[in-house]
Amino acid sequence: MNTSFIGFVVLLFIATVLAIEGAYLWWHSKHGAAVKRVKARVHALATPSDADAGPASILKNGGRDDASLIARLLMSLPRSQALQRLLLQAGLDWTIKRFFTYVGACAVGALAVALVMHQPLFIALVLAALCAPLPWWVVRHKRAKRMKQLEQQLPEAADLVARAMLAGHSFPSALGMVGDEMPEPLGGEFKLAFDEINFGSSMSDALQNMVTRVPLDDLRYFVIAVLIQREAGGNLAEILHNISTIIRERLKLLGKVRVLSAEGRLSAWILCLLPFALGGVIMLINPGLMRIFWTDTAGMKLASTALVFMVLGIFWSRKIVRIHV
Fold first, then answer.
1. How far is residue 77's CA from residue 72's CA, in Å, rounded to a whole number?
2. Which residues contact 109 (CB under 8 A, 6 or more apart)?
3. Topology classification of domain 147-260
4. CATH 1.20.81 domain residues, the chain
5. Is 0.85 topped by the overall pTM?
6. Is residue 238 within a helix (H) or strand (E), and if so which, with residue range?
7. Separation of CA 194 from chain center
8. Tens digits of per-residue pLDDT, 219-250?
9. What is the pLDDT of residues 239-279, one digit of tens each?
10. How far is CA 130 from CA 13, 68, 143, 217, in A?
């Protein structure tokens, strides 16, 4: 395979991606969610409201009202609710159908690229299997990043609630103040809890829903303290101030642990990525040397065994370098 053909394949792939992106942007500008909301608002203003209609939910239904057969089948999967909750915790507006569409697109795209480059079917299937979980990794990364931001914002939010209550505000109005003054993502979560209370939900249900959307131990302690104070009484402002102090000290300790373990984490990254990087370099320099791993039976067994042990090593290294505080 000469260099010109490889360059042509790469340019063709880039052109295809750009064409798909352009088509998506055009479709989104004509039929996107924002356009639909504007059309729905104009339609609602132009037509009288139905007095007999039931109350609208404050939360998005995650695509449960989609009448398509595929959407109903996906929602009937055993872990569909957990997946929908994961997408919600990541701050994404994806439905389950959209998530699996991305999974299939990554797998099919990787398979097509491998076949266009005249790779063996085994390599094409392995590449498709490796690329299929990319949307899952993206969701997990966004969720971890969002949880980290929420954890950093929580002490300030607890102090703001405590100061608002010392100034004479009620706890629900203090939640609304946090929602208005704090930036995203924590401000939006407190604002949503405040709106749920205003729409008729109980204080306990609104706070427990917030814990479901933001599964942080520190926020759980915050909610438990509020609920216990409502039942037993006490100085809630002082309790929240103490909670914010404890959270700040824990985050400070976590920062020190991350600094001290930085060398170990860097070594783990190097050990995990070095075999794949070395294999890619050898594949570029001398493809015939690597071709034996998918053309010969013994080579395929060696490659499969090595991949299994490398995956186990990656998980083991990840468990070692992850220190919980």
1. 9
2. 131
3. Receptor-associated Protein (1.20.81)
4. 147-260
5. no
6. helix 236-260
7. 24
8. 999 999 899 988 887 888 899 999 999 999 98
9. 999 999 999 998 899 888 888 888 888 888 888 888 888 88
10. 19, 29, 21, 33
